[in-house]
Amino acid sequence: MTDQKTADIVVPDVSVPGVPAPDEASEIVVAGSAAPGGFIPPREPKYEWGIAVRSVTDLLNDGSHPESPEGSLLILKDAIGEIVRVGYAPEANNLPVYLVEFPGGKLVGCLEEEIAPVLGVRSAAPGRM
């Protein structure tokens, strides 16, 4: 003979304002999905800080440089600079953003498609390029 016990589970009818009842739920957002409000993990950056890069296009002010009018030219195409910091832009789906110091000490945040390495990308092995 097998000892099996069954239990009746009673779920009380509790409703919370603003939260749909289980039969009213229409969409579940899974972490990592591209759905609005879902978490999108940051993309690995192609370039590391400390490498020399050139601008592949004219860089214009998107409004983040208050000393220059929006839409004005910040950096000319083919200008050489150095990546001084790598971060992420949550408002742009966690894309890598590179803070590049150009001649004259001008700091500009650049996306990967706006810059290209001058001599190549650093290798992971110390002392090797």
Describe this structure in words.
With 129 residues, this protein is mostly beta strands. It has a domain at 52-117: SH3 type barrels (Roll), CATH 2.30.30. It contains no helices and 7 strands. The radius of gyration is 25 Å and the shape is globular.
Gyration radius from CA atoms, angstroms: 25 Å
* Distance separating the two termini: 73 Å
Q: Could you give the order of the helices and strands?
A: EEEEEEE
Strand order, sheet with most strands: 6-5-4-1-7
Say how many strands there are.
7
Which oligomeric state applies? Answer: single chain
What's the number of helices? 0
The CATH architecture of the domain at 52-117 can be named as Roll
Mean residue pLDDT: 75
Helix % is: under 10%
**Which CATH top level class of the domain at 52-117 fits?**
Mainly Beta
Structural class: mainly beta
Query: Per CATH, what is the topology of the domain at 52-117?
Result: SH3 type barrels
What can be said about the biggest beta sheet? 5 strands, antiparallel
Note the overall shape.
globular
GO biological process, one term: nitrogen fixation
InterPro entries: Nitrogenase_MoFe_mat_NifZ
Family: Belongs to the NifZ family.
Organism: Skermanella aerolata
